[in-house]
Amino acid sequence: MNKLLLIIKREYLAKVRNKSFVIMTFLSPILMVAMVILIAFLTQLNDSEKQVITILNESDFFHNEFVITESTSYIDFKNMSLQQAIDSTVNLGYYGLLYIPDAATLQEITDKSFFYTKEAPSTSTLDKIEGIFKTRLQQNRLQELGVSKQDFLEVDKNYDINLSTFSGDINIKGFNEIRAFIGGGFGYLIMMFIIIYGGFVMRSVIEEKTSRIIEVIISSVKPFQLMMGKIIGTSLAGITQFAIWIFSASLLMLVVIFIFDIDPATFTGANPSMGAMSTVPDVSMMNEKVLALGVEIFKIPWVMLISFFLVYFLLGYLIYSSIYAAIGAAVDNETDTQQFILPVITPLMLAIYVGFFSVFNNPHGPIAVAFSLFPLTSPIVMLMRLSSGLGEGGVPIWQVVVSILLLIITFMGIVWFAAKIYRIGILMYGKKPSYKELYKWLKY
Amino acid sequence: MNHVLVAKEVSKKYGTYTALNNISLEIPENSIYGLLGPNGAGKTSLIRIINQITYPDSGTVLFNGEPLDPKHIAMIGYLPEERGLYKSMKVGEQALYLAQLKGMGKAEAKKKLKYWFDKFEIGDWWNKKVQELSKGMAQKVQFIVTVLHEPKLLIFDEPFSGFDPINANVIKDEILELKKNGTSIIFSTHRMESVEELCEYIALIHKSEKILDGKLTDIKKAYKKNIFEVGMQVFNPSEIIQELKEKLAIFEDYYEVNENQLNFKLQLNGKSTQEILTYLATKAPINHFVEKIPSANDIFIQTISSKNSNE
């Protein structure tokens, strides 16, 4: 036990004192914040570039429909032929020309209208123009039917059905997605941690092999102790790094928001003007909804979720990093690791994709359940599911128990298997082992 | 005689490959025991079993009369053939770590390290990183780490590889000193000169089997073939040699003109040395008459090639 602590301490210090580790730890938050600022800046830059669209309107059906907005302005051409209008637009360097011919009916006009541009126009521009046409067509049709604009707005109502669980918990639409995102965030964190720090464990084993210190050490301690010490020490270094990142990133973010006075809404991507064309939602209703969502987020069982995060994180990381340690022991240098790493990363990727596609749609469907029980994917998928709660209305308790039991059994199996490979592999030099070879090692 | 280590019919297989086949050894206390054999004979496999890095498939190993047990690890020091240090770790810190892994307390380890570092005059390396050291320098550190915890049994696998002749001598003297202080030493090598100088006992392992073991002097006695090397003061060599050859089994004769010395080897062939000497003395003055004792190298090559030709 005492020796295990010594190994953990050494591995931790070796990792933490490593120059590139220190640089990465302190540089990454700065890079991340810089990236966010850059994105915010570029987004603003993009928005500030105004598109100018010229309109050659020969019909009587369109008058004041084209309203100048922040991002687009319209210029009317009059008494020109189409060719002249195109030439002028090109000469003036404007974005495009909207040609609306004259005809007897609105339908005919819209059928014959053209939008001329240099290159294929952006979808947002098209949406705008098409929206205007669509609204005009609707109005026209309503007029024919004798319905006023006000009456139409009365009719065109959005409706969200009220949601409730059988036990009576009121749910909000979209809330499942938010929960799944939070669960997905945790799952993603686990995957990143496993890939980054599993890689560290592997490289550290390879280093011990290439520096030939391994035999000196395992004449004093058991290979299993060395392997576990390495895995634990490296993960503690990783947790330190994560803690520093989270702390300094949030600190920097606060500073940036404070100094540059950036509206946090820029990051959320919620742009209220987007939906303005159809119906302007009641502002007070919106607020109510946001408030309710906020309340719901607080109602997410954070304590439960974080405790399970720790359990699944621990077990998942131990399983995968043992595999990484075995890979490190089996090869002589990093270039030989490729053939073994791919099968390790595949279930992780699968878990993330299955999680995002299947769990989002139906957190308790058969696929989601299967993947949340399968030990190589369960740490990620189960966490995504657990964000919807435990027990009634959430993940059935038996599934959680079974998945944790399966994880523990797998953990013991994999560690046994990895320790065998490790024990033989660390003393093998100059061979690039095949899977067949590894299978033989298991029997030594 | 007490034995620090006894191996009884130890066998080890790796898959279908037999690394050790029924090896039995007895290593006397306070001796230097040479474990000899060509590359791939199984020396390292045996050493790894003694160090409990691997375990035998069958057979037992006794340390101090008890079956090998993890508690014995602290009483064994092992300098492997494939040896190295963490490159980016500082020398002192690393030595301290390795000593603690052997079960030493930190303060005690520090004190002893200081003693050894002063002895080898490498005190100023303490805060250097290993990657700044030369190979020979790093080997010195490894040697210190191996002997630091004053083990009862020391195992050196090719200890002199990587040392220049001067440092090899320093290490050799240290090994002899350790032996004088009561340590038992297993010395694995295929370099025979050092065996001759250091070992009292040897075991020869070839193709996973022990083919010879015992006290080096006894083995030499057993391997001598009653051959004597003779040098005589002679002025008419061709006549003398003709005459001698009629009476004795003589071979490899040659004449050193400058010294007027006739050299040859002779096989006793049942005659006593007394008899032969008396006869030779009547022919010419004898400069030397020495029994040819086989060197460890001779024995090594002879046994192994005879073994190979038998197969």
Sequence-ordered SSE layout with sheet pairings:
The complex is a heterodimer of chains A (444) and B (311).
Chain A: H1 2-17, H2 19-48, E1 51-57, E2 72-77, H3 82-92, E3 96-100, H4 106-112, E4 114-117, H5 123-145, H6 149-155, E5 163-164, E6 170-171, H7 175-210, H8 214-218, H9 223-260, H10 265-268, H11 283-299, H12 302-330, H13 338-361, H14 366-373, H15 378-386, H16 397-425, H17 435-442
Parallel strand pairs in A: 1-2, 1-3
Antiparallel strand pairs in A: 3-4, 5-6
Helix pairs in contact in A: 1-9, 2-9, 7-9, 7-12, 7-13, 7-15, 9-12, 12-15, 12-16, 13-15, 14-15
Chain B: E1 3-14, E2 17-28, E3 32-36, H1 43-50, E4 58-63, E5 66-67, E6 76-79, H2 91-101, H3 106-119, H4 135-147, E7 153-157, H5 165-180, E8 184-189, H6 192-198, E9 201-206, E10 209-215, H7 216-223, E11 227-233, H8 237-247, E12 249-256, E13 261-267, H9 273-281, E14 286-291, H10 296-310
What would your notes on this structure say?
Chain A: One of its GO terms (cellular component) is plasma membrane. The complex is a heterodimer of chains A (444) and B (311). Helix content of chain A is 68%, strand content 6%. With 444 residues, chain A is mostly helical. Chain A folds into 2 domains: 2-41 and 165-269 and 284-442, no CATH class; 50-155, Periplasmic binding protein-like II (D-Maltodextrin-Binding Protein, domain 2). In chain A, strands 2-1-3-4 form a 4-stranded mixed beta sheet. In chain A, strands 5-6 form a two-stranded antiparallel sheet. In chain A, a hairpin with a 5-residue loop joins strand 5 and strand 6 (170-171). In chain A, helix 7 packs antiparallel against helix 15 (378-386). Residues 265-282 of chain A have low confidence and may be disordered. The mean pLDDT of chain B is 88. In chain B, strands 6-7-8-3-9-10 form a 6-stranded mixed beta sheet, sandwiched between helices. The relative contact order of chain B is 0.13. Chain B contains 10 helices and 14 strands. Chain B has 2 domains: 3-222, P-loop containing nucleotide triphosphate hydrolases (Rossmann fold, 3-Layer(aba) Sandwich); 225-291, 2-Layer Sandwich (Alpha-Beta Plaits). The interface between A and B is medium-sized, with 26 and 28 residues.
